[in-house]
């Protein structure tokens, strides 16, 4: 039975590249059984394949080569300790990937919603049903929809990033539905962003709350954000509600979604004002 194999045969039998075997030889983690001094050819003994399997396994679980060097020169106790540590690392990475998956899913749904809003006629009142949303909100005394509210929004970002999560592009204001003569008389109660239902967020001592925006049918109006025309869009929505005697929960939920993603371009947002029917 054949016991010695060339580097090419070893590579083929072990599903590994010749270049990788040469590199492993160079850094000293897997050397050939002997090298022909006449022609420089490397030869591996079949019993070495078992040790190559160990290296391949460690690589598969994303073990750094320097750690592999230490493990193969140590004992089973060292490997056990390392595997326990690596298990914890992988579990953390899986948690992060799951958060990324949820964020991606939420962002896809938001983009779908945004495109649906874009397809509606701007400045015209309409109705649409919305599912319940879980939100993270911060109180915003004396903040007007026209004000720079970025510093308040950064508080929400900080809370999410502290736990390894990321905020998406969805943010909104909540304020009272009233017959304002000028939109600069509006003062927002909260700024919010959406999060996944059931998320656990540490908000202790941060003046931030977890809340929900109820499901139901909303009276809405959408428009491309404009300080100049905000009043007319708000008045259109308010007068529609009043003239049709629509009962509401007395709140306006304003959301703004970016329609471009480069800081080098002029800022553009799609805005929707929503009022929940009772």
UniProtKB/TrEMBL annotation:
InterPro entries: DNA-bd_dom_put_sf (IPR009061), MerR-type_HTH_dom (IPR000551), MerR_fam (IPR047057), Reg_factor_effector_dom_sf (IPR011256). GO terms for molecular function: DNA binding. Residues 4-74 form the HTH merR-type domain. It holds the Pfam family MerR. This is DNA-binding transcriptional regulator, MerR family. The keyword Coiled coil applies. PANTHER family: MERR-FAMILY TRANSCRIPTIONAL REGULATOR, REDOX-CYCLING DRUG-SENSING TRANSCRIPTIONAL ACTIVATOR SOXR. Keywords: Coiled coil, DNA-binding, Repressor, Transcription, Transcription regulation. SMART domains: HTH_MERR. PROSITE patterns: HTH_MERR_2 (PS50937). The keyword Cell wall biogenesis/degradation does not apply. Residues 80-121 form a coiled coil.
